Amino acid sequence: MTTRQQTEEASFEGLVVGVDIGGTNLRVALANKAGTIVGRWSYSTVGIRDPQEIVRMTCKGVEALLSANASSHGDLVAIGAGAPGITDTDHGKVLATSYLMGWKNIPLRDLLEAELGVPAFVDNDVNMAAFGEHSAGSARGVDNFVFLAIGTGVGAGIILNGEPFRGEGWIAGEIGYMLVPGTSVGLVEAGEPGALEAIVGGEGIRSHWQGVWSEGSTELTKDATATQIFDEALAGNPLAHAVLGLASRTLAYAIYNISLVLNCPLFVLGGNVGLHPALVDATRVILKGRNARVQSRLVPSSLGVEAQLYGAVFQAIAIAGKPNPGR
Amino acid sequence: MTTRQQTEEASFEGLVVGVDIGGTNLRVALANKAGTIVGRWSYSTVGIRDPQEIVRMTCKGVEALLSANASSHGDLVAIGAGAPGITDTDHGKVLATSYLMGWKNIPLRDLLEAELGVPAFVDNDVNMAAFGEHSAGSARGVDNFVFLAIGTGVGAGIILNGEPFRGEGWIAGEIGYMLVPGTSVGLVEAGEPGALEAIVGGEGIRSHWQGVWSEGSTELTKDATATQIFDEALAGNPLAHAVLGLASRTLAYAIYNISLVLNCPLFVLGGNVGLHPALVDATRVILKGRNARVQSRLVPSSLGVEAQLYGAVFQAIAIAGKPNPGR
Question: Does residue B140 surpass a pLDDT of 90?
Answer without folding.
Answer: yes
